[in-house]
Specification:
Length: 496
Amino acid sequence: MPGGDGLLSFDLHPDDKGPKDACGVFGVWAPGEEVAKLTYFGLYALQHRGQESAGIAVSNGQQVLVYKDMGLVSQVFDEAILESLVGHLAVGHCRYSTTGASVWANAQPTFRSTSAGGLALAHNGNLTNSADLLELAAKRAAEADLAESPADRGSTNDTGLITRLLATYPDRPLLDAAQAVCAELRGAFSLVFMDENTLYAARDPQGIRPLVIGRLGAGWVVASENAALDIVGAEFVREVEPGELVALDGDGVRTRRFAPAEPKGCLFEFVYLSRPDTRISGRSVHETRVEVGRRLARDFPVEADLVIPVPESATPGAIGYAEESGIPYGHGLVKNSYVGRTFIQPSQTLRQLGIRLKYNPLREVIEGKRLVMVDDSIVRGNTQRALVRMLREAGASEVHVRIASPPVKWPCFYGIDFASPKELIAAEQTVDEICASIGADSIGFISLESLTEASSVPADRLCRACFDGSYPVPIPEAASRHGKFQLEVVGPAAGN
Ligand code: SF4
């Protein structure tokens, strides 16, 4: 059954919109296993990375079949659908839109029928040269006399573009075509794709988004985060290297390098995007967040009675702050995790409740207390302003805000949708002005140096552009001007 109007009601409170991740990807090659169900549970573990649409492609060795729709993994699939997806090889995806609008045609995996067979592809990240690639795909298709695929119609995401480019090499094995195409892509891409028999994975030369390989008995699994390997019982083998392309099947792992590695992993994965039980570059995300909390306590001490997190991503930071400061830790806010993930649009009365639809204060815990409220990041400031007001109304005598990331001042072009640059509160205001704007008694942001040290990843191997404006991959004009809708804008002109 189609999911309502296809729009999830994230905007219960239009001003309360945190950073949105690009996507989660998952792939499995495992003859004898129920690969569609493994992929379903893998996507479930990655649901936090994308909640607008979900899809699974499966192959039985003869043909590739794709099922996808708008909504959460649990809304798109049921037992009967999963039972019908039979095979030994599968690729799955859960999406939040970065390039391309949130519509069915942009859901993934994207599918393409080529002269060599079927091709299904899932992508986490965001390309920065989509406009150039669109022209290149059209030119190559014309030169090779390739007809437009029905899959191209209505699709305006950069992932469909990668599939189109792969199809412009009909005479080459997919591994060779992918090696050539990956070298032409710029920006962030962690790819998982398949033909009838083989699972492939590739990661951009900077390795901006994570991608890991796991072993499942005699089979293979590839996933955005190792937490998704754990949930299906796969054992972590290694990360896909930046600039590496791998093929996985009964012949084992075949690896190709399409570009030299220039590692620049996303620092924000540690702050907010990844699950706490994930490891990045060998470092636990949970441990990094706890360490950031300890550092916040040392750098921004305050006399207070209770440390509370804004659940859930700030919970480890609050634990670290409490541990280091000796101030007790407690739950002052209860989060209604699922309210923003429904197809039911709230009524006007409900909308007026705003942030209360998502968080409810525990009056008994906070009344009369001087609070330290730890949050992971501030994007627009509206959420923190509403929370500070709510805590005061519930009886808090003081609210001191501590933020587990530096001020977000620049937009991300590599797969995270923060807000437009004009809406980023830290781009326009000083720290003192932000404190006054959200109505806190004091505020403290972890410094970029301290956050970097807490991650244990050397600064020159990280992307930190949303904090310092230094973009590791150049941003062309079309991407910086039109952002996620660049292919809607340039598509028609380029003959899409
Ligand atoms: S700009 Fe920020 S969110 Fe985007 S990849 Fe770089 S560190 Fe991550």
